[in-house]
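Hi F.,

I've been meaning to write this up properly since the lab meeting, where we talked about keeping a consistent format for the predictions we share between groups. The idea is simple: the sequence comes first, exactly as it goes in, then the structure tokens exactly as they come out, then a line or two of notes. No screenshots and no reformatting. I'm using this chain as the first example so we have something concrete to point to.
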Amino acid sequence: MNDTRTLPAESTAALTREEAARHLRISKRSLDRCIARGELRAILVGRRVLVPSSELARLLEGG
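Output, unedited:
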């Protein structure tokens, strides 16, 4: 995959599902499937699901 997308400079340690899906240019449902299959790690904080920025970087790098 030859994709040049990177995390924004002002990225935070973790993104909401909406932010992560928007960054990956996929739907929230597709993001949820990636999380359910174990392709993407997510953290539950209270009732919020957050995706670590490092996970997005790993996924974009092809890992």
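Notes:
The longest strand covers residues 48-52.
The longest helix spans residues 28-36.

If this format works for you, I'll send the rest the same way.

G.
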